[in-house]
Sequence to fold (176 residues):
Amino acid sequence: MIPTLCITIVLSAAAWFDPPPAPGAEDAAKPAAQEAKQPAATAQGRDRFEIHAAAQTGDAERVMKLLAERPTLLHLKNAAGRMPIHVAATASDPSALGVLLEHGAAVNGRDHQGDTPLHLAVRANIVATVDLLLQAGAGVDRKNARGETPLHALVTGEALALEHVLADLDLGCGRL
Fold:
């Protein structure tokens, strides 16, 4: 009986110190809380979002313009640790990827999961992008945080459209 009484008193005291919000106050607080979670709307924040968005849509012209204005955008990472080249590697149009590579993007750069652009392109099953990354020197043997290389997706059947890539790779162990 005593433990129940103590819990009731503690809960009652907590409610007394933290009264419920007035009707309608919760709705007014939501936008402010959501704004606090968003990054500040600085020029760099807008540019970072813009370069990643342009890379995702394959907008080569926009990527080129943004890099001309601010070359450092090439290496900026989003919340997942992905640079524009990572985002471009999953785009259906490889045009922006080509621009990023021409400007010196890190072809073997890693995101927070250790994935390289080639990991992402292989999983997305985008043949033209995989070919472009391989021509640019992307490593097929780079392991991510799970110990997987881009080759894992090829040999496990995750990327069936890329069979020819596997057959054409010279891995130093004879033709596959």
In short: The chain has one domain: 41-168.
